[in-house]
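PROTEIN DESIGN WORKSHEET
SECTION A - STRUCTURE
LENGTH: 171
C-ALPHA CELLS:
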C-alpha cells in the first residue's frame, strides 16, 4: 500500500486477475471488499472441487507401511498381505512421497522396475499397470515410467490404506 495526500493505492493479484484500487482509504477498502465478495463464492466452490494432496497427512498415514533407507523406498508390509494392485500403488505412492520430501530424484518409476517389485511376469505386471492407468490411479510418463496421479493418492488414502491397515494390524 502506498499513500500520498491521504490517498491509498492497493494492487491485488491472484492468478490471471489483477486489480489496482486508488482513492481514499474508505473507497479502496469498499472496492477490495466488493472484489473479494465477487470472487469468494468461486474460490469456495473451486476449493471444494479441487483435489489436493496433503503431504504431511499421506506421509503420516503411510507410517509402518512405507519407509525410506539409504537404498531407497521400501514396503514394510509382507507381499503376501497385498494384492497386486495394492503393491503397485504403494510403490508409486512411495515414489511420490519420496520425491516430495526430496529423498528421491523422480516421482515416477520405470515400468520394468515396477514389474520386478511385483514379482510377476511381464504380461501380468503390464495388465495390472494398465488397470491402474485405466482407473486413473496412475499415468504413463516419458521413458516408460509410471507415476501415481493426484486422484490415485486420494483413493489410496480413502480406500487402499485402510484395507491394508485392517489386514496388518494385530487383533
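SECTION B - SEQUENCE
RESIDUE ASSIGNMENT:
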Amino acid at each position: 500500500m502506498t499513500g500520498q495526500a491521504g490517498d491509498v493505492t492497493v494492487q491485488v493479484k491472484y492468478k490471471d486477475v489483477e486489480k489496482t484500487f486508488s482513492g481514499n482509504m474508505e473507497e479502496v477498502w469498499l472496492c477490495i471488499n466488493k472484489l473479494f465478495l465477487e470472487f469468494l463464492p468461486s474460490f469456495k466452490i473451486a476449493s471444494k472441487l479441487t483435489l489436493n494432496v496433503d503431504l504431511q497427512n499421506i506421509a503420516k498415514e503411510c507410517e509402518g507401511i512405507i519407509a525410506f533407507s539409504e537404498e531407497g523406498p521400501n514396503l514394510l508390509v509382507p507381499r503376501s498381505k497385498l494384492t497386486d494392485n495394492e503393491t503397485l500403488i504403494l510403490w508409486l505412492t512411495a515414489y511420490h512421497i519420496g520425491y516430495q520430501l526430496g529423498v528421491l530424484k523422480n516421482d515416477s518409476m520405470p515400468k520394468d522396475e515396477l514389474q520386478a517389485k511385483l514379482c510377476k511376469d511381464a504380461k501380468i505386471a503390464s495388465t495390472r499397470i494398465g488397470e491402474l492407468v485405466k482407473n486413473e490411479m496412475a499415468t504413463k510418463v516419458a521413458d516408460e515410467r509410471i507415476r501415481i496421479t493426484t486422484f490415485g493418492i486420494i483413493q489410496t488414502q480413502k480406500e487402499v490404506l485402510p484395507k491394508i491397515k485392517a489386514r496388518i494390524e494385530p487383533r
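SECTION C - NOTES
Residues 32 and 126 are 54 Å apart (CA to CA).
The first helix runs from residue 25 to 49.
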